[in-house]
Design a protein that fits this description.
Strand 7, helix 4 and strand 8 form a beta-alpha-beta unit. It is built from 13 helices and ten strands. Strands 2-4-5-6-7-8-9-10 form an eight-stranded mixed beta sheet. Strands 1-3 form a two-stranded parallel ribbon. It folds into two domains: about 180 residues, Alpha-Beta Horseshoe (Leucine-rich repeat, LRR (right-handed beta-alpha superhelix)); about 260 residues, Phospholipase C Beta, Chain: A. The protein is about 60% helix and about 5% strand. Helix 5 crosses helix 6, helix 10 packs antiparallel against helix 11 and helix 11 packs antiparallel against helix 13. By secondary structure, the protein is mainly alpha-helical. Keywords: Cell projection, Cilium, Coiled coil, Cytoplasm, Cytoskeleton, Flagellum, Leucine-rich repeat, Repeat. It is found in: Cytoplasm, Cytoskeleton, Flagellum axoneme. Belongs to the DRC3 family. Its main location: cytoplasm.
């Protein structure tokens, strides 16, 4: 068996790994938080260890001060500083590697913003729970060696995890180890020194269940051992794989359902695909009507008709939604081209003025040096400045006209699509109303036939609940009318919701375009005046 030697850290030494030694010195140390002084000291120490030999007349502090750039730091070592709380790391969003080992930290927190972190060392602390790591989705190497952790939790979002070191903790449940199966990129796992390692099935469980694992407790795993463990755990493994397939299938269905719901909401179709089930679910008379012989067939016919009409309506609305998105994209592209062309022309005007201004100011400085400052030159520059301002303003007004024309075209196309949607929506809901009326008529005809059979004594062997229902024809017919009214109310309410949302969505779509253009124009005009004012001040 090939042995992989762990990376040797100071914390791995016999002295600092000895809990009694640590407890003997910690009471004599002042607990600290991560503040500016601690960070700067750590950075200077780090820089000093990396610098070339420093000239004799220059101190480490002087050299360090010259090159420290807090925003560019990607490695920060805060080991052996008796830190008890993680804090004040704002501004270090570019950190890739963070060392907080050999401190007295008890809680993992305030790391959410370090989303680029790939390497985190929290070994030799007093941590009892794995938490506060949800945002560190890029983490690949996590060390929590020599803490007081009892359960493997809080790691679900660390999908890139490659190395996990949990040696010398209090983990005792073999099921915790099985949960690590979800980390498909996990190649190295260190659990040595935990009670769970004493379980008879520990090694077999790890080898059989953890896919892709290559090293366990610093020892390379042999292929034959992995195959043997899988063979011994075949029954459990097959059951787990079946559960995973079911879970993956359900997850895929949920994802597809969420995507469909998202598309439906964007296309103003919310509630359309569930119209039939919603009507029936909210029908207070349905339970009575379901007792009638032949009801299931009538209900099924109603459902099929609605679903066919609904599918056609959904396809039509989705197609028009795609047309809206195409129009939006076309407008955005046209606006970008207009902006680019306008800015290019404005730049030409500005460059022309800058050349004139530079040349004229040189002439003015020459006349000034000769003791005869030519104020006419400054006046001429001022006139040219005003001409530049007027030309840029003319270009901006031209831009406004072009954009307004494009916005009007965009608005007309969106209104056309909206009109088609509203007409289509009206046709759809009228069809649904027709199906509902036919459904009610069918129920009434069925009830009439059942009542005639009952009067002829042909229903005597029916179930007691049905016979009780047939005693009072008015009650039964009232149930059909109430059901019908409930269905119509649901249909009309959904139609009203769809219509209002269609108008609001399209108005907002066009409104945003107009608002964006208004702010663009205001900013541009302010920019022009600001530029002219700054040049005017320089000429005074």
């Amino acid at each position: 068996m090939t042995t992989l030697q762990p990376v040797q850290r100071i914390s791995d030494g016999d002295i600092f790994g000895n809990d009694s030694f640590r407890s003997s010195i910690e009471p004599n140390l002042t607990k600290t938080v991560i503040d500016e002084d601690v960070i700067l000291e750590a950075i200077k120490d780090q820089i000093a260890s990396e610098l070339d030999p420093i000239p004799q007349d220059q101190t480490v502090e002087e050299e360090s001060e010259e090159i420290i750039d807090l925003h560019s730091i990607d490695v920060l070592a805060l080991s052996f500083r008796n830190i008890y709380k993680i804090d004040n790391l704002k501004g270090f969003e570019n950190l890739i590697k963070l060392q907080l080992d050999n401190n007295v930290i008890s809680t993992i927190d305030n790391l959410d913003h370090l989303v680029k972190l790939e390497w985190l060392d929290l070994s030799f602390n007093s941590i009892t729970e794995i938490e506060g790591l949800d945002n560190l989705v890029n983490l690949k190497d996590l060390s929590l060696v020599n803490n007081q952790i009892e359960m493997i939790t809080g790691l679900d979002s660390l999908v890139q995890l490659n190395i996990l070191s949990l040696s010398n903790n209090n983990i005792s449940d073999i099921d915790d180890v099985r949960t690590l199966r979800q980390f498909e990129n996990l190649r190295c796992l260190n659990l040595k020194g935990n009670p769970v390692c004493e379980c008879d099935d520990f090694r077999k469980t790890v080898l059989a269940f953890l896919k892709g694992l290559r090293y366990l407790d610093y020892q390379r795993l042999e292929k034959e051992d992995i195959e043997k463990a899988k063979e011994d755990k075949q029954t459990e493994l097959l059951e787990l794989e079946d559960q995973e397939k079911q879970f993956e299938s359900l997850a895929a269905e949920r994802k597809a359902s969420m995507e469909t719901n998202r598309q439906f909401e964007e296309a103003n179709l919310k509630g359309i695909n569930t119209l039939f089930s919603d009507m029936m679910k909210e029908d207070s008379e349905l339970q009575k009507l379901q007792r009638l012989p032949g009801f299931d067939e009538i209900e099924r016919d109603y459902q099929v008709k609605i679903e066919e009409q609904t599918e056609s309506f959904i396809n039509s609305m989705l197609e028009r939604h795609r047309e809206k998105l195409t129009e939006q994209q076309a407008y955005d592209e046209a606006l970008t081209k207009m902006k680019f062309a306008n800015e290019a022309k404005c730049k030409e005007v500005i460059v022309e003025f800058q050349r004139f201004s530079k040349r004229s100011l040189a002439e003015y400085e020459t006349s000034k040096s000769l003791g005869k400052p030519n104020r006419f030159i400054l006046q001429e520059i001022q006139e040219k400045l005003q001409q530049m301002s007027d030309r840029i303003m003319d270009l901006e007004m031209l831009m406004v006209d072009q954009v307004n024309h494009a916005v009007s075209e965009f608005e007309n196309r969106i209104k056309k699509i909206k009109g088609e949607n509203l007409d289509n929506s009206n046709t759809f809901f009228r069809s649904i109303e027709d199906y509902e009326n036919y459904y009610q008529t069918s129920l009434n005809e069925m009830v009439q036939m059942i009542m005639e059979r009952s009067s002829a004594g042909l229903m005597n062997d029916a179930e007691p609940e049905l016979l009780a229902l047939l005693v009072d024809k008015d009650t039964l017919q009232n149930a059909i009318v109430t059901s019908h009214d409930n269905h119509l109310g649901k249909i009309l309410k959904l139609e009203e919701t769809i219509t209002e949302a269609e108008n609001e969505m399209d108005d907002n779509m066009v409104g945003r375009v107009r608002e964006d253009e208004y702010h663009r124009n205001r900013f541009r005009v302010a920019e022009i005046f600001d530029r002219v004012e700054k040049h005017s001040i320089l000429l005074k």
